[in-house]
Amino acid sequence: MNPVEEFLLPALQVKSMEDEKHDSIRIANICAAKSVADAVRTSLGPRGMDKMIQTADGEVTITNHGATILKQMSVIHPTARMVRIFLNHNILWK
């Protein structure tokens, strides 16, 4: 069980199979959003690390710019994609 599930499961009351399904979907959405945020979080601040991103055709980019990281990120999960779009617009317009 991952840390997010350990944190959230006591707060979620499972009443039926349908509620359990909703809870697992909610946890999956939170984990997907958290993974996108974690990819950018470590590149922020004065001690931010550079990220090496390799595209499908082998092109390598090294950057610590959040918008560049998000722009080149390939995301499949719908919630993660939504977070990526939001963060990308938020970073570009600050």
Description:
One of its GO terms (molecular function) is ATP hydrolysis activity. This protein has 94 residues and is mostly helical. Helices cover 56% and strands 9% of the residues. Helix 2 runs parallel beside helix 4 and helix 3 runs antiparallel to helix 4. It is elongated, with a radius of gyration of 16 Å. The protein starts with a helix and ends with a helix. The model has no long low-confidence stretch (mean pLDDT 78).
Task: Name some characteristics of this structure.
single chain, 94 residues, mainly alpha, two-stranded antiparallel ribbon, 4 helices, 56% helix, elongated
Strand order in the largest sheet: 1-2
The structure class reads mainly alpha
Ranges with pLDDT <50 over ≥5 residues?
Answer: none
Largest sheet: 2 strands, antiparallel
**Tally of DSSP helical segments:** 4
Shape: elongated
**Percent in helix:** 55-70%
The number of strands is: 2
Proportion of beta-strand residues: 5-15%
**SSE order, as H and E?**
HHEEHH
Query: What is the rounded distance between the termini?
Result: 37 Å
Walk me through the topology:
Elements: H1 3-8, H2 17-41, E1 51-54, E2 60-63, H3 66-72, H4 78-92
Antiparallel strand pairs: 1-2
Concise summary:
With 94 residues, the protein is mainly alpha-helical. The protein is built from four helices and two strands.
